[in-house]
Amino acid sequence: MADSLEETLRSLTAVSQTLNKSSDLLNESITEVENALKKFNLGIEARVGIYSQLLDDRTGVSHVIELKYGRHQGKWGLLAVDYIDEDPDSTWDERFLREAPREVRLAAIGKLPDLIRVLIQESEKSAREAMAKAEAAREIAAGLSRKPR
Where are the domains of the chain? Predict the structure, then answer.
């Protein structure tokens, strides 16, 4: 019996070390993605769903977890957002993805391509809006610079 317990504990130690190393590698990879995104200096927030679980069939209330790229605590990064859709204001929990539970981090990695697509769409939309506003400002400036008659 003692040999079996000792063997089990050795196995647990080995798998624990492997799990912790893989978790550290996952966080390093998340940081690499964040750093790469920061280099684009987009200043655009975007988010995509990771998980939604219906909590109440009668009311349709769901628990939602999303992957977000945005500003948190004054820094841009990948974020895990967790809330109840019926009352997001009082249930909203936002944290850096690398600080989220392991299962959320693992699921979020599969959503990174979707998030990047949304970032591209939002950036294109913002660029179009900025161009239109710049043109409107030019027209106003041109009108103001004309001499009154």
Answer: 2-118
